[in-house]
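Shipment paperwork, digital attachment
Item: protein structure file
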Amino acid sequence: MLNGFHHVAIICNDYPASKAFYTDILGFSVIDENYREARDSWKCDLALPDGSQIELFSFPGAPARPSRPEAQGLRHLAFKVSDIDKAVAQLTAHDVSCEDIRTDPYTQKRFTFFQDPDGLPLELYEIN
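Attachment content:
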């Protein structure tokens, strides 16, 4: 019945900063971008080469949400990478700090966490 994820929707606090983070640092490309005057809101559809998408929204006065990995709700968003050391180096070159790289004791895959401009927990998960 389900074929996979189409997109993840994120409401950000600082639209220009978040758009720059997801495009310039993480490498998403802009599919479409619209300002919705009636809502005083931006909506930007972003994509990775494999078709994964993020809908990036801005809403004035949106309340902050607890975002630590142990808060209820969405725990984190994980991105597949083929070389986690290279990905971490690229992030740190843009002043994005990453936790120490760990190894999952069950899968033996390496992973680390970092945050977007609003503190949303993001993960790099090495697939090779």
